[in-house]
Each structure stands twice: as C-alpha cells, then as structure tokens.
C-alpha cells in the first residue's frame, strides 16, 4: 500500500499546494528569524540542506541571502514549482534542488552548516523510521553547525484540541477533521478543500495528513540519542520561550 505522503504530496499534490502557496509570504520573516536564532549561538551558515523543501519557501530566501542551499523533496510537482520560484528570484547560483527522500540521508556525502526541516515535515513514518530520519540529518550537520526542526508541539495541541476547524486558505474553505490516538501519539487530519467560486464554493479535493506528534522532552531525548550534544527548545523560530501551551516547537540541535 502506498504511504500517505505519496498520495498527499505527489499523486494528489494540489490540495496541499494551496497551503504551501498561502504561506510563501511568511517565509522571508521565518528565514530572518531562523538566521537570527543561529546567529545568537555564533553560527553563520554558508551552506544549508533543506530537508522536505516543498516549493522552496525557505530555500529561495536563504539563496537570496547568499547561502548555498540544497533543497530535497519527494514531490516532483512541488520541486517543479520550487524551480520556477528559484528562476523568478534569480537565485539559481545559490539554490540546487533534488528529488530525494529524507529516509535516504544517511551514508551520503556532504555536510552542511545548517540542516533544517520546517513546518511539521518530521514524524511522518513509524517510530524506527522517524529515528532513522533524525540520525540521517545528524550525519549531514557539519561540526560547528546545527539542525533546526520546526513542528507541532504535542502538548500545546492537546491542551487546546480541536476535532474540527474550517480555516480559510487562499480563496478556499478547508474543512478539517482531526483525530488523535493517545496509544500511538499520532494525529490524523483530513482536509477537504472547497474553492471559492462566483456563487459559493466547489469541492476541489481532499487529503489525509498522518503525523507522529512529539512532546518537547521526548524529541530532545531523540536528538541526543541521534548524537547531538546540545539541544535547545523554543516555541518558535523567533526564539520565543517554550511554554506548556505553545502550539509550535522549535529544536536547535548541535553536534
Ligand atoms: C508540510 S510540507 C513543508 C514544506 C516546506 N518545508 C515548507 O515549510 O514550506 C511537507 C513537505 O515534505 C515533503 N516530504 C514528505 N515526505 C518526504 C520524504 N520522505 N522525503 C522528502 N520530502 C518529503 C512533502 O513533499 C512536502 O513538500
């Protein structure tokens, strides 16, 4: 059976693409915050690996700031869009894009000052595979560099758990239904998209997003087990202090 990520990001990539495009404008500030967070610990990356780069939201921004970025993703449609965006911004000298799987990072050549994985792109697989993905990312971080993860914080999400929501995303209504399984700590979200038309809304398609949620202490322990010596936790890329109700979690892990 195909993994849900193949369905959601490759075969039926249009539903989530709407979300990605909707977040393009946020990427410049997110990138500035990311670089400031690293700068606070004396890290000024010259090279970066964007693991699960999507349509290149952050890769384009880092390229624009003269950082050599390699973006990898499993989705051909998103990589095609990322290539268009790289060309439009004129950052082709700094940004390279490659179809590659985050499960294949280990045992390859190439280390980077910064390895990053943003917007809940971690936790897609079973426990062992998620650990292997983390170990692969660890291998690709150069000495003196860092891994940055930005994802959902399980504790914050459960504190305000909403089984249903109807957010507006780029001229569409998205009807979300969410289930959480405490035995596996997995959250499955079904998103049905209704695109705005002249007279109302038309059903456009749907996707299922099935992710393992991590509590901060648990993810920090996994990072240490992967080999990182120092792990710092925040509530956002802006370095906001992590609190019980924080809905986002940022990990900065240094080898
Ligand atoms: C939530 S999006 C985040 C994209 C990007 N990091 C951003 O912030 O815009 C998740 C991305 O992970 C990619 N992805 C899913 N599984 C992957 C895998 N095994 N290897 C590489 N990329 C993967 C998807 O194609 C999608 O682009």
TrEMBL record:
CDD domains: AdoMet_MTases. One of its GO terms (biological process) is methylation. Pfam families: Methyltransf_25. GO terms for molecular function: methyltransferase activity. InterPro entries: Methyltransf_25, SAM-dependent_MTases_sf. It comes from the Archaea. Keywords: Methyltransferase, S-adenosyl-L-methionine, Transferase. Residues 49-145 form the Methyltransferase domain. SUPFAM superfamilies: S-adenosyl-L-methionine-dependent methyltransferases (SSF53335). PANTHER family: METHYLTRANSFERASE, UBIQUINONE BIOSYNTHESIS O-METHYLTRANSFERASE, MITOCHONDRIAL. This is Class I SAM-dependent methyltransferase. It comes from Halosimplex rubrum.
């Amino acid at each position: 059976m195909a993994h849900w990520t193949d369905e959601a990001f490759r075969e039926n990539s249009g539903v989530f693409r709407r979300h990605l495009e909707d977040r393009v404008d946020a990427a410049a500030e997110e990138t500035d915050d990311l670089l400031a967070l690293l700068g606070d610990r004396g890290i000024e990356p010259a090279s970066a690996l964007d693991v699960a780069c999507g349509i290149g939201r952050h890769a384009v921004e880092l390229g624009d700031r003269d950082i050599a970025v390699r973006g990898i993703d499993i989705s051909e449609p998103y990589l095609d869009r990322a290539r268009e965006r790289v060309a439009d911004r004129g950052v082709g000298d700094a940004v390279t894009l490659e179809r590659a799987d985050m499960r294949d990072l280990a045992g390859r050549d190439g280390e980077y000052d910064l390895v990053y994985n943003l917007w809940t792109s971690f936790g897609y697989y079973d426990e062992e595979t998620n650990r292997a993905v983390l170990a692969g990312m660890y291998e690709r971080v150069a000495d003196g560099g860092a891994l940055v993860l930005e994802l959902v914080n399980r504790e914050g999400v459960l504190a305000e758990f909403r089984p249903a929501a109807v957010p507006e995303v780029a001229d569409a209504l998205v009807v979300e239904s969410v289930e959480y399984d405490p035995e596996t700590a997995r959250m499955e979200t079904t998103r049905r998209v209704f695109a705005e038309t002249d007279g109302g809304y038309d059903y456009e398609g749907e996707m299922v997003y099935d992710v393992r949620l991590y509590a901060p202490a648990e993810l920090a322990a996994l990072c240490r087990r992967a080999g990182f010596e120092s792990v710092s936790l925040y509530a956002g890329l802006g370095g906001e202090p992590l609190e019980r109700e924080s809905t986002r979690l940022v990990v900065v892990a240094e080898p």
